[in-house]
Amino acid sequence: xxxxxxxxxxxxxxxxxxxxxxxxxxxxxxxxxxxxxxxxxxxxxxxxxxxxxxxxxxxxxxxxxxxxxxxxxxxxxxxxxxxxxxxxxxxxxxxxxxxxxxxxxxxxxxxxxxxxxxxxxxxxxxxxxxxxxxxxxxxxxxxxxxxxxxxxxxxxxxxxxxxxxxxxxxxxxxxxxxxxxxxxxxxxxxxxxxxxxxxxxxxxxxxxxxxxxxxxxxxx
Length: 220
Description:
The chain contains 6 helices and 15 strands. The protein is of the alpha/beta class.
């Protein structure tokens, strides 16, 4: 029987592991599978990347700890909005990019779960790079991004800026393609007021693609 991406991702989880829990639809599917395994006797601890993920994990019976409570994370399972052939990523459509990047950086391995529609030839094909900015610097950041040729807009919901779990805003920079993801990430992070970008260059070690006939694995 074909396995889903969330089920295949369990191959990266061992008894006693500390597991980073991503945010979004794919990550939520994994949390539910992980909860089933915990109910069956698997011993793990989860480090959530958002308030929403923490609430879901608790509802599924997954024990949680904070990042301050662990020296390192064995594996983080998360989703992505774009994946290129080098397994570089764009994340942040769900507005949890900074916490996701912090947890990923604290992990020995980052495993990404996506549908085939998230696979791109070059990052930027879906047209935007989410960037988390502090509200005080939002206007300055917008001007700097425009000067860099990356004009866009603050993400809005019901006529007001979207606010992250960190209390910040998301600016969606317009882009067509990214020739050097790591370099652009560094350039954006040099703008005062930027907390982090949705470019995850060189961080993922494996990508699980959820296909109709069963999940497939891509590894760096």
